[in-house]
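user: Kindly work through both lines:
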Amino acid sequence: MMTPSSAAAEKLRKDIHSGHYKIGQRLANEHELASTFGVNRGTIRKALKILQEERLIARRQGHGTFVTNPTYAQPSGTAVSLLGAMSWEKEYYFGDILSEAFLRSISRGYMLTTTLNTTSDIESRNAEALMKSGIQGLIISPKPHSIGTYRRFTEAGIPVVMLDSMLPNVDEDFVSVNDRMGAYMATRHLIELGHTRIGYVGNENFRNDFPCGPDRLEGFNIACMRHNIEVPQNWYVQSDSRVESDYLPKLRNLLGQLNRPTAIVAFGDSWAVRIVQIARELGLKVPRDLSVTGFDNSELSRTNFIPLTTVSPEPDEVGKTIIDLLIERIENPRPRPKRSILITPRLVVRESTAKPS
């Protein structure tokens, strides 16, 4: 006789195989499922455990339960193929990338677990945990201290793909957004609006935390050069640290001048938000007196009181691409030249840019 949990698992199993649930779709929570099946949450929890062991679903702590690919479903008790990801943050920039990577991995029959490598000690502990879990491949957004972790995994025969930045003197598969192109797009947008007095605010020299800084600055410079825009040296406001006191006085001084830029390209959305705030403090209206662009298409850009024109790094595409590249390495281990893939970004025009007044 079929138990209530087995009956619930069988109904969900049929719905998954029939296509009623799409790959990557999140299931209702345990309370809602229990109500639908007329059973208690303990029964539903047992049913979900059965399907998880069959690899028909994947559960991500704090995010819910997702349908994986029935093509990859295995008999109960078969070990799940694990992937690991390490990044120095998981909220502002990498959050959307890792979320899409998670969904892509379960659609391919794998499970992705994410950890941090903010400091050397944190990275070492998390690397040890990933090794013990038996991951088959690693995604890492490396910090300067990550060379030891990289060598540890590659010497163990575990494929590694770099995300967003590379380690010095390391030839490895790599996926990132084309930062140079993104900054070029933002600058060209301002030029096409009619701006010829354009400044740049960023952190080109702070390579350890923001390795994309030089590329974004170069994209800005290339756009200006190609359109014959001359940028005075004091219209570059740059910082060698995250401390606002290092650059805010320079920014206030620049925006307070009579001969000031009518537009500014910012390294990122958080910088663009501060530029808009300071402009308001000085009595400037955005975008009438000053147009501002960001980079990242973060929540900040969407929820700021003046929504920001910004560059989307297309995190969904980055997440899908890096998972596919890593699985290719796992399933086709033959030697081949390393690949560097730069995802084309997208300009998102909102209310912080307009024609110069």
